[in-house]
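Postdoc handover notes: sequence design on the structure in folder B. Input tokens:
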């Protein structure tokens, strides 16, 4: 279980086409704030130290949090984000 908050700045250009995701990783576009709380993260079956949270559909973003043996949390993103404030803790 995770506690705390994660606030991200997510670039949001308009999509180029129905199946074209290339522009979604353009870091020069206007960022929008996406906030997660620890309760947004759900455990991954069979992996006790891995948690996943998904942003609303329009952001096309999934965040994976891995709790390391020293208690630190390593984050991975399904697309480019600008991490602005990470206050997640294992609990």
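Designed sequence:
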């Amino acid at each position: 279980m995770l506690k705390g908050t994660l606030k991200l700045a997510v670039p949001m250009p308009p999509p180029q086409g129905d199946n074209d995701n290339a522009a979604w990783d353009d870091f020069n576009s206007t960022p929008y704030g996406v906030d997660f709380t620890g309760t947004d993260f759900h455990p991954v079956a069979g992996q006790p130290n891995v948690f996943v949270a998904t942003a609303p559909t329009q952001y096309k973003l999934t965040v994976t949090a891995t709790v390391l043996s020293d208690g630190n949390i390593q984050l991975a993103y399904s697309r480019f984000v600008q991490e602005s404030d990470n206050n997640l803790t294992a609990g």
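Context for whoever picks this up: The mean pLDDT is 85. Don't rerun without checking with the PI first.
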